[in-house]
Design brief:
The complex is a heterodimer of chains A (93) and B (338). Chain A is mostly helical. Chain A has helices at 2-16, 37-51, 62-65, 68-92. Chain B is 48% helix and 10% strand. In chain B, the strands form 2 sheets. A 4-stranded parallel beta sheet of chain B has the order 3-2-1-7, sandwiched between helices. In chain B, helix 1 packs across helix 2. The chains are: A mainly alpha (93), B alpha/beta (338).
Amino acid sequence: MQIENEIRKFIMENFLWDEEVNLSEEDSLLEKGIIDSTGVLELVAFIEETYSFKINDEELAPENLDSIKNISQFIQNKLSFSREGLNREAVRI
Amino acid sequence: MNHFDKKALEIDCLAEATRICEFMRKTVLKDYRRRGVVVGISGGIDSALTATLSVKTLGKERVLGLILPEKESSPESEVFGRHLAEWLEIKTETVPITPILESLGVYQRREAIVRKYFPDFTDGWKYKLSISKDTLEREGLNFFHLIVVDNDGVTHKERLSLNDHLEMVAATEMKQRTRMIILYFYAEKSNYIVGGTTNKSELLQGFFVKYGDGGVDMEPIAHLYKTQVFQLAEFLGIPQEIIKRTPSPDTWSAGVSDEEFYFRIPYDLLDLLLYAHERQVPLEGVSNVLNMPPEKIMRLYKDFDAKNKATWHLRIMPPNLIPSFTPLEDPAASSGVF
């Protein structure tokens, strides 16, 4: 929930300004015209910086980045994957 | 009404050339009350067509070709530009713009970005931007790779960060804007206008630079898809070396085609799909004619719409508060298609 709130806050502050928009967690950000291709790159920069991981080229897809729900899920998965990786490293050591 | 086949873009070249010449004559002589046309000759097919139509309209004495090379232009560009001017028997002025671009810091800014990603970058290495190609095979988002070719011919690739991408594009667009300034100098001192070279495929998808190659006085071929530009060029007998040349923005030291840089698909396919999308041809018919799965067509339509929407501002006058003149939205974008 915290990630979802952070993403929503970023989108509201950077793409919607003071617009009164009722944005559901499943709304397509591209189809609703909220972000364009430059906006996607802004979003990617925000995610990489805030959550300290690199988004690979093949992950730059709507199923990961086109709604608040997809973005939150994608971040959760990435963080979970990197934690698992760290744990495996720890076991090996 | 929505009949669609692979010949949908075929035009009556004589009728079309006649129509454009009438438009140009009226625009130059009656509307602008000027004496001729200046065309920036790039060695590519679009400027060749505009220059040729200008000569057909006004005569060779009233057309000035400007050749504006810089150090990262393909050497072919200047050679083919000269050949065209010789064929048309028009006067030319050649103004190398490298010193201007150097003084603006264009090369320095771009190479500083390249070095951030490739610290070994040095003289002789080439580079370019290239759009992601995934959309053809799956739902994807638009982003660009910086591609560098080292002195051994080995290619390296990195995705640019947002800020680096924006600065790289902004620095590059100073090339087209510099050319615009020079075109206007020669046009104004000759009492001519600047003839544009943007075609419909480029216009719809925002593949031109605001106040760069989009900074002109008339756009005589903006209603023609690129494949129709080719048809008219053949009809008018434009030199084959120009017609056969792969279309390119010619702004990167490593050669890059329009397809690789921006459109993702070849012009013949792009134009048919743009046409079908614009006319809302039923998807099944498009799929059958082009032998392409409907889901792939829809992905490409989405890409067209995204590019058109993202570049709406290129196609309008700056928004303002003058009553009855506030085109806040591109009419094409608000029509529901594009």
